[in-house]
Amino acid sequence: MRIHINITINRTVQIMLLYLFCIVTVESLWAPIFAVFITNAVAGATLRTVGFALAIYAIAKSVVQVPLAKFLDKTKGEKDDFYALIAGAVVAVIYPFALLWVSRVWHLYVLEMLSGLGTAALMAAYYSLFARHVDKGEEGFEWSLFSVGGMTVSGAIGSALGGILADTFGFHLLFLINGTVNLAVLFLLFYLYPLLDGSRPVSIPPFSPLPKNPATKA
Predict the structure, then answer these.
(1) Is 106 contained in some domain?
(2) Quick one: pLDDT band at residue 4, thresholds 50, 70, 90?
């Protein structure tokens, strides 16, 4: 008995899933071993420093993301979400490159605050856009792709490769890969712009070209 599974996802969701997969993969190259880098590379840093740095990131992200998400929800249209998404993506490019120059504890704290603010903008907009563009009747499937493909599998791949690369080449290569990939996929997000504000293409197989006159769905 042959079972045929026809996977179709609209182009907006395809772009967003690919973007998420890429940025989580490259961040996971070094995130699990970030404490090792800090204690070795930053003068005077201890594990306490790492804890404070992560707390600063979490506080900055938490304080900004919820009110920003509320604002984006209340603002008509999706262009504001797009601009917030791009702003967060730009910070995601700057952050790993800036880590190459961190040499003092206060450098790290400022950078973690910036990263928290950028992640807040990125994820508030990302969740908003993704939730609006999931295909009707495919919500569980596409949110599962978000969770498993975008967050879990990507994290596993990045973590496995990161340990090998860091052990062989050091942390600087990981930050360069992270920043370079983030910069490359930043341009991928601009393909979202024509698909916003209700102009949604029909569901299509992943990586297939868009039809010339795509039907739209509410």
Answers:
(1) yes
(2) very low
Residue 213 lies in a domain: no
Residue 17 placed within a domain: no
pLDDT beyond 70 at 218: no
Number of domains in the chain: 1
Q: Give how far the C-alpha of residue 194 lies from the chain's centroid of Cα atoms, to the nearest Å.
A: 20
pLDDT score for 216: 44
Which CATH number covers residue 46? 1.20.1250.20
Give pTM, 2 decimals. Answer: 0.85
- Return all residues near 29 (Cβ < 8 A) that are at least 6 apart: 158, 159, 161, 162, 165, 166, 174, 177, 178
The whole domain housing 126 covers: 22-191
Q: DSSP letter string over 12-53?
A: HHHHHHHHHHHHHHHHTTTGGGHHHHHHHHSTT--HHHHHHH
44 torsion bin: left (phi>0), alpha (psi -120 to 50), beta (else): left
* Cβ atoms of 84 and 121 closer than 8 Å: yes
Mean pLDDT, to the nearest integer, of 39-61?
A: 94
Structure tokens at 211: 């039809």
Look at residue 208 and tell me whether its pLDDT is greater than 60: no
- What is the overall mean pLDDT for the chain? 88
Is residue 209 in a domain?
no
How far is residue 76's CA from residue 128's CA, in Å, rounded to a whole number?
12
Tell me phi and psi for residue 216, to 5 degrees. -115, 160
